[in-house]
Amino acid sequence: xxxxxxxxxxxxxxxxxxxxxxxxxxxxxxxxxxxxxLPFFAKLPRxxxxxxxxxxxxxxARELTELGHEVRLMPPSYVKPYVRxx
Length: 86
Fold this sequence. Notes:
Helix content: 25-40%
Structural class: alpha/beta
Shape: globular
């Protein structure tokens, strides 16, 4: 299974990563510390990464683009439908 799309939720300390394959099946669901983000994405093959636009999203988009990934920033109103309350 190869990861095709990743959702990255940015925060102050712990970032949430949710990755799916081409068929939409969940491949990765994990929390990463700030220092773990770039090494984690450096190991992944090129993929699409979706990030909610916020204060630090442009910084992370530049860093991930340098690793070869395609990054798309989404306004918060577009992200809201994907939020699941447990």
